[in-house]
Design brief:
single chain; mainly alpha; two-stranded parallel sheet; 6 helices; 8% strand
């Protein structure tokens, strides 16, 4: 993050993530299989495929990704789940608690 956007943006996003209601989910065989399929479908890295497959498996309302440029280039092609960049969340004033 800092390499692409600078220290100030990296610190802002880190502070946001520290207070976000993040949940840990184990990587199952099914998630690994789906990750490979998403990797091929979207030309992602395996890590991004795992992130996407995990969010979908967890029935997340949406997925928040860090890299705005990559979001605009690749993540906006995703049809299985709504994907936002952290910058989008900050600009939309979505609080870290994500309360509805």
């Amino acid at each position: 993050m800092m390499r692409n956007y600078g220290e100030k943006e990296a610190l802002t996003q880190h502070a946001y993530l520290k207070h976000a209601p993040l949940k840990m989910h184990p990587t199952t065989d099914e998630i690994a299989k789906e990750a490979g399929l998403y990797r091929a479908k979207y030309c992602f890295s395996l890590a991004n495929g795992i992130i996407l497959a995990t969010a979908i498996s967890a029935n997340a309302d949406f997925l928040v990704v860090g890299d705005k440029a990559f979001h605009d280039e690749k993540w906006n092609e995703i049809t299985e789940i709504k994907v936002l960049s952290i910058s989008d969340c900050l600009h939309l004033n979505i609080p870290p608690s994500l309360e509805k």
